[in-house]
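Handout, page 2. Input:
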Amino acid sequence: MALLCFLLDMRNIPPPLLHLLKQCLLHLANLYAAIPSADLPDRLALCYVHPAASSSSSSSPPQLKVVYRPGEKFNLRDFHHAVNNLPLDAFRPNQHGSLHTTGDVSLTNLFSNRAIYSWATDDTSKKVIALSMSAQNTQALRRSLMDAAEQCITVEFVLLETGAAFVCDGVSENSNGFIDTICDLENCVVRRYSPETQVLHGLVKRWLEELKDDKEEALQAVFVFRVPIISTVNQISCSMYASANHIIDGFPSCQICRCHGRPIDLANTNKAKWMCPITSRQLTASDVTDTAVKIGEQTVLFLPDSEGVSSLRRASSSISFDVIERTNLASLNEGLIIGTPHIVIPSSNDVEVALDDECSDQNTQLFYGLCETLFKLDQGLVCSSKCNTETMKIGSLECYYLLQPTEKGPMLLRRLAGSEEILPLPVVSRPCNSTGTKEVQNLIETSLSKIVLKDYNPLQHERGFHSRLNCLVKDSLQFGCD
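Output:
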């Protein structure tokens, strides 16, 4: 877990890029607030570098402004307010379009005991993520970074570089000199990215993983072969990471005590008396508000009225799926498939569906015609629904599904991860000498040929449930009747 302080150098961030970065920060805050945790500490901070006022002397140093400080609990509203009110008039490109480097801001106050170091306990790591930061006097910046190292504060410089029109050609040249000045500092790292949507989305997910308390470590796995895969080696060691995780299906309405702004326990709402969840004081109707929604476990948003407030409800026996697009199955990333698959067959007149004989026959023909056509094209249908088939709850957020054909039989409905649910790919640094030679590939191919090749049949792959349970019952019977 870590406290992340975002530092934006507004002098170097043109409006189009600032818009993208603001969306990233808002998405990060939203995902963090929705974490299913009974205790959500505040581990986000936001500050920015602003050029000196136009009325000031051109030699006046720029200003460092802190607009969101961590409190006891994360405040989603205040963070949104701070992000949405970042100044839009601070971009200062140089005459030739290169990054602005006139005047340096002192970061000493940010790294002091009164700022970032005091915003979290000693057992929480602290990181400053500096976006598009530049400096003319790099030695002064270097000294402040060395001070940060003494406070065990990590600084990650994120340089967003692209050939797009709103970023200049001089960026790389300037950043190279900047990197050379700080590359030997152990507490600093410089990362270059292209500000594309997919790249920024990945950054948000990586930042979210750093914020989490329960960050999952990689599972260590060993794949053991019954015959040597090469020479005398019969196993491959690997690390495993989750590819997606589930998020909430909506934002349910709740009753809130006005005195502390905390949700009233559902067990109390059926009683004649409301009780404050903090003090257990009896509440009257005027002490309770119904126009609020819960985001995750701890975050509550007050709304001006109840319009748009909804609760999750149990799905009925019929679920509606909207077909939105086709997709090529060969190019589909299997890591995006989550949850339990469902077998889909055509409804007929022997089930509780209002279809007469003629409509039933036509429905069946269409179903198998669709299945065979999709199978021939090696394509599936992407569908959306408000129903989450994992929880069988209907919420306010979309769930996505893949309707996948089979050759002659039923189709499969499989849940697809949305953009909020996918997790970042692990960082893999493949050594240059890791590419298998032709000789190695031939040896592996020979070894694989010794492994039986056949279609998977689940009836031939028992987990051992019945045999194990039969043994347990048999052992239990030795003690006589119950």
